[in-house]
Amino acid sequence: MTTTLQDCQALDAADPLRGLRSQFNIPAGTIYLDGNSLGVMPASAPARVAEMVTQEWGTDLIQSWNKHGWFQMPGKVGDKIARLIGAGPGEVVATDSTSVNLFKVLSAALKMVQTDAPQRRRIVSERSNFPTDLYIAEALCRQHGMELVLVEPEDIAVSLTAEVGILMLTHVNYRTGAMHDMAAVTAAAHAEGILTVWDLAHSAGAVPVDLTRAKADFAVGCGYKYLNGGPGAPAFVWVNPLHTDRFWQPLAGWWGHAAPFAFTPDYQPAPGITRYQCGTQPMISLAALECGVDTVLAAEAQGGMAALRTKSLALTDLFIQLVEERCAGHGLGLATPREHAQRGSQVCLRREHGPHAPPLRGSLPPEGAVTALGRPGGGDSGAYAIVQALIARGVIGDFRAGDGGIHKDILRFGFTPLYIGFEDVWYSVEHLKQVLDSGEWQRPEFNRKHAVT
Ligand SMILES: *Cc1c(COP(=O)(O)O)cnc(C)c1O
């Protein structure tokens, strides 16, 4: 049975989480399916940031470190994030960037391996992991004479051998939205004596995570995606309390010192996760991040992450169903797993490179205009241009380039259940259908490459 716009409106009317959308002012005429890349601004953020700037910075100045608890902010916001990822109070700090935090935890994990099992000289990760994760791991491997081994997801299990010290994975793949079973993978790694480092960039605030139950070793994650913390928001870091006090992290700055205001010449790491702080933190950004984290915590009264997850799966199921019903015949395939347990909060459509361009109905661009400009992404799949045409219609998704091999160009749509509804899903597929049926995406303006895709 096909799903109609009216059905979708009925789903919205019955949605117990629909009130959470009022925490945001989504621009009129926009269906925002990119909360996996930059979350929507919380409506509370401008006033909070203004207060931080005019009152705390402008008037109270240096007294704010004590008066407004600035010094405790990374831990305070970290404790809030901890509630979303199955960590305890005092186990998370909001600080630095995901890349920098990954450097810190991976260094600490390497130190553990070098101390406990120096014969293990490999780090295993996924070839399609987010590049910064791979670059950080590669740099550390060069520094420590280790080897970075990249595998496809189906080969992770067989790659966990006696040579491996660390398994570094992103829980939900940024390209495909495929999700690992964190508890099962961690148990498999531990059974072989291997530590696990998890990147929660596409998990925190998007899917339920239980680091404690999974017995994970290290985790990092992002503040500006599903946590709605604003562009460049501080990221977060968690270390299993069993490991935290065993080693220094390498960026041993004064904010990680046991007594920073003793100003001693020698370094004494603070107990617990505080030692994962380095230097002075961005207070204005932390204030905005707290607003964002609060928008997710606001769901706690309606069932929290479990309820958000139920809605997220319903949204992505509906999107997949409508795309398959209404957009067939345009060379689009599903890159995201259908299996709920293997799906994050996004849907990615794969577009093969090659001659899928349908004949252009309506007005044709000038002869040669499209090919002369070329299409970005290392191919001519049209995925980039389709996303651009959707953006012009107010449906904001994004494009991720394929590698010309098994990883195809991808149209990526993130569904943040806090502010996306079922009617949004219906209209986004309607726009996609119109863009494809009309061939509108072939217009030259949609084939010009921007710096950020
Ligand atoms: C978004 C993302 C990052 C971002 O790292 P930054 O340091 O914030 O630029 C890192 N890793 C993964 C897996 C991501 O999805």
Please explain how this structure is put together.
The chain has 453 residues and is an alpha/beta fold. It has two domains: 5-32 and 304-447, Aspartate Aminotransferase, domain 1, CATH 3.90.1150.10; 47-299, 3-Layer(aba) Sandwich (Aspartate Aminotransferase, domain 2), CATH 3.40.640.10. The protein is built from 15 helices and 13 strands. The chain has helices at residues 5-13, 45-57, 64-67, 73-82, 98-116, 131-144, 156-159, 182-191, 211-214, 241-244, 283-297, 304-326, 369-373, 383-392, 422-438; strands at 31-32, 92-94, 122-126, 147-151, 164-170, 195-199, 218-221, 236-239, 332-334, 346-351, 395-396, 398-400, 409-414. It has a seven-stranded mixed β-sheet, sandwiched between helices. Strands 9-10-13-12 form a four-stranded antiparallel β-sheet. Strands 1-11 form a two-stranded parallel ribbon. A hairpin with an 8-residue loop joins β12 (398-400) and β13. α1 packs antiparallel against α15 (422-438) and α2 packs antiparallel against α11 (283-297). The two termini are 36 Å apart. Residues 354-378 have low confidence and may be disordered.
